[in-house]
Amino acid sequence: MKRSHRLLLFAVGAAGMAFVYCAGALNMPPWGQYRGPYGDVIAQLAVYQRHATDTVNAVTYDYRGFDTLGEEFILFSAVTGVMLLLRPEPDRSEEKGGGGSGNPASFPDRATLSETVQVFTTAIFGFSVLFGIYMATHGQLTPGGGFQGGVILAAAPMLLYIAENTEAFQRIVSHPLVEFFEGVGAAGYALIGIAALAMGAAFLTNVIPLGKTGDVFSSGTIAAISACVGVEVAAGFTLIIFEYLREILSRSKADEE
Amino acid sequence: MIAILGVGLLALIAISALAIVRTENVTSQVIALSFYGLLLALMFFLFRAPDVALAQITVEAIALPLMVMLAITRMKDREATGRAEQEKR
């Protein structure tokens, strides 16, 4: 294909794209205005029906809880896939453990940290754990919820790694309980749904007492599911991080010995 | 007033998206991507979607750069290991 042909093809494509884009943009609702009844209906009903002040989470964990269950298991199977792909190769690890023939090229670009960074990352660790727990347990009241809280919790150990407290980092992320909690979180969500079945209602019906609006222990299954998702996401992301770093960590450990 | 803020923010997002594409060093690119994610989160907040903004911050400013950095680290580490093994032979 000649250059002029290619340019022509691009011009046609760009013109078409510009036309469709402009036509779409002209029909958009005005700035900050919402069309369509569902959002307004939910915003009016959710607080009375579910005692949840954050209607977004009332939607994700209750009104369309089944979809979120599917999303949860997408994450679950993605984590399983990563673990399967990055599993340690047997011959490599043998070489590492048995040979002792030394260190295969020390880590290529290791940044030297200032003491300030080390001290502050360690200090922030506590805050981020607290913030993650807060986020996961207050999903029904304020913006946030299990997913966001879980990611914050999983990112907290990385602060230890950044602060070069590798030993503590490894103790946290390689703990066998992490895998256990990933399963518990994913299963908890499904079990809450099945509990409703056992009580004679439809799958994932909000069967737990709703409590007082505005309390942490309110909104029934929304809070419970949010907590389950938080546990699952935190454990899942921690597992992924560990799988990525496993080789590097085990090597640095072998070097120390 | 808020419309001006929004237009400015959208322009900033467009510029930073261009900056990500134009950045050549992968590490800097990840940092640029993370900054872009933060701007998107601000935009969601401006459009009154704080939940989405929080998810956006955690995913694109924490999780995604973390994953990409980990993958890069792992690749570099493997490269170094391979080179050392070749030298041994």
From the spread of the alpha carbons, the general shape of chain B counts as: elongated
- Estimate percent helicity of chain A: over 70%
- SSE-based structural type of chain A: mainly alpha
Total strand count of chain B, please?
A: 0
Q: What is the 3D form of chain A?
A: globular
The oligomerization state is: heterodimer
> Which ranges of chain B are low-confidence, i.e. pLDDT below 50, for 5 or more consecutive residues?
none
In words, what does this structure look like?
The complex is a heterodimer of chains A (257) and B (89). Chain A has 257 residues and is mainly alpha-helical. Chain A contains ten helices and no strands. The longest helix of chain A has 36 residues, at 221-256. Chain A is globular and about 65 Å long. With 89 residues, chain B is mainly alpha-helical. Chain B has one domain (2-88). Helices cover 91% and strands 0% of the residues of chain B. Chain B has three helices and no strands. Chain B has helices at 2-22, 26-46, 50-88. In chain B, helix 1 runs antiparallel to helix 2 (26-46). Chain B starts with a helix and ends with a helix. The mean pLDDT of chain B is 87. At the A-B interface, helix 7 and helix 10 of A face helix 1 and helix 3 of B.
Pick out its properties:
heterodimer, A: 257 residues, mainly alpha, 10 helices, B: 89 residues, 0% strand
Topology of helices and strands:
The complex is a heterodimer of chains A (257) and B (89).
Chain A: H1 3-26, H2 37-50, H3 55-63, H4 65-85, H5 90-99, H6 115-137, H7 146-162, H8 166-173, H9 176-198, H10 221-256
Helix pairs in contact in A: 3-4, 3-10, 4-9, 4-10, 6-7, 7-8, 7-10, 9-10
Chain B: H1 2-22, H2 26-46, H3 50-88
Helix pairs in contact in B: 1-2, 2-3
